Amino acid sequence: MASENDYLDGPVPLEARRSSFTMALLWITMVTVFPGVLIGFEWFKQGYSLRQVIISTVFSGLLLLAYSIPAGLLGAHTGLSYTMLSRLVFGSGGAKLVALNLVLIFIAFYGLAALFLAEGLAGLISLKLPMMWLSAICAVLMAANNFFGFKGVANFARFVAAPLLILWVGYTFFKTLGSCPVSIWQVGEKCSLAASLTGISGFVIGFAVWGNECDYWRFGKSKISTCAWPLIISLLIGQFIFPITGYMVAYSTGITEYGAATAFMNDYSFGGFTALAVLVLTVSYFAVNDSNLFGSVQACIQLKKLSLRVWVAILAGLGTVTAAVLSISGAARSLEAIVSLNCVILPTATVVMLCEWWLSRRTGKGVFAVNRDAHMKSASTKVYHPAALTALICGIAVGVLTSGALPLFGFSLKFGIPSLQAWLAAAFVYLPLRFLELRAYTLSQSGVELSDQDLVRIES
After folding, report:
1. Rg (CA), the chain
2. Are 238 and 33 in contact (CB under 8 A)?
3. What is the pLDDT of residues 348-401, one digit of tens each?
């Protein structure tokens, strides 16, 4: 997917922008993947009712759209990469922190996707190879498209594998819908709706959000509809139909283990035609990790000017080690931990960028209120932007502490919707601090005497 000419140092020209149909196919392959089905089995195992699943997935999807549509528009409107936008808003030094967060999360997802593929293959064809080795082999092979530039693999994933996966799960959905007992609506609820919303939203948002949406949508056209309808369709399929299908199959069969679930889905939908299931799963997971590696390489090349293949080799190596390590705890537990952090860490930085974009458009001041040439100069002259970094740290702290991902003193604090709490905290901190910075800058430009504190803030 990645190439040496990805417009890393400037905006994507209008003539290089892709059609909305192409962007839709890309995003569908990035969001509609098989773990979306498997999580439905996990939700049934955890005791959520179907009513709780439907309410929570719909609410989480709407919340995700409220974030992802503006994030996509930011990339399409500016044409700039996620790393370049980070430099503008956080400073060149702050952008390194943002890029490091992105790379760490993407490596974790890269290893997780390799582990999911390994478990799926083991369930379909009964491979006897230890899961640690099988997941590591999958991780190495998944880097081939980025390393060698096999465009045909990516196109096959978008035009063949993704539609087949959607048809597979869609067929299973309607087949199960017609045969699933009505008693599924009487499943007892083991927790409150608020608790189910906390758990389910963590997956829906944490799995479907990318954080660096700008890196992908800057190749699209700057229209709300161009961003909105692909996101709506992909979320409807990947985060609503997919998990509900898994939930209904789990209720009907009692299966809750991922490998057995994949094998049953093959027998139930394909009549045991294993080769087709293996092909669809393999190429769809390859497509997801193709996008994971693309986003990581984009960030790393901005931090250190190494060749594309060198970065692909380094990141694929780290992803391979991650896949082997995650195989020890298993895919289900690893997925829960990674998505709970992903929905907080990466999108919070983008929320700060969106706040700056909104301020610039509303006040006529700020980094997005000037032309793009001035953008580039601004990115190279400022090392740290205190308001942006303060907001980012506060937002991530609130989200992580309320997600239960990092227990403190043996006590796990988990409540509300951690991602939403993180985003709001970052916005509430950034907007007033940034208003003060812009006001101080305006006063300095008009010749008004400023205090030492104001001067320090302006210079920083």
Report:
1. 22
2. yes
3. 999 999 999 998 888 877 788 765 445 445 545 667 889 999 999 999 999 988
Identity (one letter) of the amino acid at 272?
A: G
Tokens 């992803």 locate to 319
Copy the structure tokens of residue 377: 């100069």
Cα distance between the two ends of the chain: 38
3-state secondary structure of 437: helix
- Three-state DSSP state, 266: helix
**The two three-digit tokens of residue 257, written as one number:** 């283990």
pTM of the model: 0.84
How far apart are the C-alpha atoms of 356 and 207, rounded to whole Å?
Answer: 26
How many angstroms separate the CA atoms of 424 and 308, rounded? 36
- Distance CA(314)–CA(292), nearest Å, equals 14
To which residue do tokens 């970065």 refer? 311
- Residue ranges and CATH numbers for the domains of the chain are 14-339 (1.20.1740.10)
Please work out, in degrees rounded to the nearest 5, the angle formed at the alpha carbon of residue 26 by the alpha carbons of 72 and 40: 95
The secondary structure of the chain in percent helix, strand, coil, rounded to multiples of 5, reads: 80, 0, 20
Q: Which neighbouring-strand residues pair with 411?
A: 408
CA distance 88 to 264: 50
Query: CB neighbours (10 Å) of residue 219?
Result: 18
* Integer Cα distance of 46 and 256 in angstroms: 10
Which stretches of 12-81 are DSSP H helices? Answer: 20-31, 35-46, 50-78
Residue 453 pLDDT exceeds 80: no
Q: HSE-up of 76 (CA within 13 Å, CB side)? A: 21
